[in-house]
Amino acid sequence: MEVIEQQLCKRLADILQERLPGVSIDGNWLPSATTPKGAEIWRGAKLDVNVGTRSYGEFTAKTAEMQVSLEGEFPVAADPSLDRSVAAYAAVVALLEEWHGSIAAVKRDLTIDGDFYPVGLRLSGGTFELDRDTKVRYYSQTFAVRGRIKH
To answer: In CATH, what class is 4-149?
Structure first.
């Protein structure tokens, strides 16, 4: 039996894999990352999806919140025209902005039939940094998903 956090992690990883074909996607609730077809395009790029355990703001509440963090590493190409790190960020942030701006989009993508019904999503910020020594961009983004859990 999969718990809601595990199902949400899998759902997020699947959605991100569609948006970032060729990037290795892993998650803290998933067995292990796989390197998808086309990964040679990204050469070592990876994104980790980490879903925290549920928390409740009130006693005996049915609405839970789960903190999610995305952490990515994107090697930077010597030729700026081949640098896909900003494109990867743009693809992820477009998805997050869609969710942040539309509860209908959150419900469409993150409802776990019979178990979890989202009621909101809040972006919390993150980082986008370049390590000039290793030529790798590090990306992080956190957000929270709130929803009703069937008890």
So the answer is: alpha beta
Indicate the domain borders of the chain. 4-149
pTM (2 decimals)? 0.89
Q: Residue 43: count other Cβ atoms within 10 Å of its Cβ.
A: 12
CB distance 90 to 96 below 8 Å: no
| DSSP secondary structure string for all residues of 59-122 | TT-SEEEEEEEEEEEEEPPSSGGG--HHHHHHHHHHHHHHHHH-HHHHHHHH-BTTTEEEEEEE
Residues in the chain: 151
Residues 6 or more apart whose CB falls under 8 angstroms from that of 39 comprise 22, 23, 24, 45
pLDDT tens sequence across 94-111: 999 999 999 999 999 999
